[in-house]
Design brief:
Length: about 425
């Protein structure tokens, strides 16, 4: 019973919490003006951010199911052997079993909707069946006829766009609500918690109150980061005193010369990439150049994807283009610090770009340095990305004269050594 307390226990405990919150007098507990359930929602929804014990219990039940499905412990292996030795866990509908098994069964459907897989070897089950994903691959490509017997036509089309599994690396289970793919109780609780409709009034009420207020302004406000450093009277005075913030950067970089294994001289080139996302179209672009001469640039079509995935695909496209054109060694510069850190193994790779990052890692020996540059030092690629958002086709530019006029102008200014300026406007009040 300790694994799954009755609802009466939760209500009894929450009654004690409510009595403590509202206080008591000589005649007993004071009147409760708001239901405890209504207090256990976010402040923007009219509550105070407390949590229902039943929601916490369900969130931890989802964690149990996650640990069970990931087979990351002796307990998980024991549960698999006891309850689903010869059948997929989602096909076990028996109400019998231990209290822990029945507890997990109550949240199984919700948990499974938020579990995804990164297919590598294809040993994971296919669509809640006893067949493996690898069973639906024939000759290195998807067996469409076999897949059509299992799933609807629209799902078949989606599967056809994915890379078929290959190799011996194990498949990875990911928690879809979390960008990192790792399970977190925070996202699990968000899935199960009691929700109410948010209103601007409730949000404004909480902004008006609070113990921490700025004392430097004639009309004190809450000491948020934006208020202290940007919007407050003192912050505006400081920024106006030193002038409008301007960032200057040059597109010039270091170029070296290396020799490939064949002995021929190859310039050490620079691949710069940028992405602009304007829903539903994403502009993916890049330029390849030695400081001075322009070698080639590219823009390609993508739609309905995240900014991070667009950045990864833009880089992958540019790297493959360099290799196809015989450039054996080059540097990579991007204004996406997150992607730079991932490729330099300084940050965890989000599950949404895992496939693209693995393809980049496979050819990482061709670009030994992956560097970060500020947006202002990446103007040519930035102009190409903006151009893509206005056009509806892939383009590859093999000469500077073929570039759009804005990108051509940015390249000309860079050759002259002119700095790239960007003015930021700070809105008052």
């Amino acid at each position: 019973m300790a694994a799954s307390p009755p609802k009466a226990v939760f209500k009894e405990l929450e009654g004690i919490f409510a009595n403590f919150l509202w206080g008591s007098g000589d005649n007993g507990p004071k009147h409760h003006w708001i239901r405890w359930k209504d207090l256990c929602v976010e402040r923007e929804e009219g509550g105070v951010g407390l949590r229902l014990l039943e929601d916490i219990h369900r969130a931890f039940s989802i964690k149990l199911w996650w640990n069970f499905r990931s087979k990351s412990s002796l307990w998980a292996s024991f549960m698999h052997a006891k309850f689903c030795r010869v059948v997929h866990p989602n096909l076990v509908f028996s109400e019998k079993g231990s209290e822990g098994w029945r507890r997990m069964g109550k949240v199984r459907a919700l948990a499974e909707r938020n579990i995804g897989w990164i297919i590598r070897s294809g040993n994971v089950n296919f669509c809640v069946s006893d067949h493996k994903v690898a069973d639906f691959v024939h000759g290195g490509s998807w067996d469409v006829c076999k897949i059509s017997q299992r799933v609807p036509p629209d799902i078949v089309a989606e599967i056809g766009q994915l890379h078929p599994p290959g190799g011996s690396l194990p498949d990875l289970m990911v928690w879809r609500p979390e960008p990192s793919g790792r399970f977190s109780l925070k996202t699990a609780f968000f899935l199960v918690r009691h929700h109410s409709r948010p209103t601007p009034l409730f949000k404004r009420i909480w902004q008006l109150g609070g113990p921490s207020r700025c004392s430097c302004c004639t009309s004190p406000e809450i000491e948020t980061t934006e208020h202290v450093f940007c919007e407050g009277a003192m912050a505006r005075f400081v920024w106006q005193f030193f002038g409008a913030p301007i960032w200057a950067g040059s597109e010039r970089g270091e170029v070296r010369e290396q020799k490939d294994c064949g002995g021929s001289s190859m310039p050490f080139d620079l691949l710069r990439g940028d992405t602009v996302v304007q829903d539903p179209v994403s502009g993916l672009s890049g330029t390849v150049r030695v400081v001075g001469p322009f070698l080639f640039g590219h823009i390609e079509v993508e739609s309905g994807i995240s900014h991070r995935l667009a950045e990864a695909r833009a880089l992958l496209f540019g790297v493959n283009l360099c290799l196809q054109r015989g450039i054996a060694t080059f540097d990579v510069e991007m204004d996406s610090l997150t992607l730079v850190r991932i490729l330099n193994r300084l940050a965890h790779c989000p599950w949404g770009i895992h496939t693209e990052v693995q393809q980049l890692m496979a050819v990482a020996s061709y670009f030994p340095r992956i560097l970060h540059c500020y947006h202002q030092a990446n103007q040519v690629a930035d102009m190409l990305a903006n151009t893509r958002c206005q056009r509806a086709r892939d383009e590859i530019y093999l000469a500077a004269a073929e570039l759009p006029w804005l990108a051509r102008g940015a390249l000309f200014l860079d050759r002259l050594g002119m700095p790239s300026l960007r003015q930021f406007v700070i809105r008052k009040g």
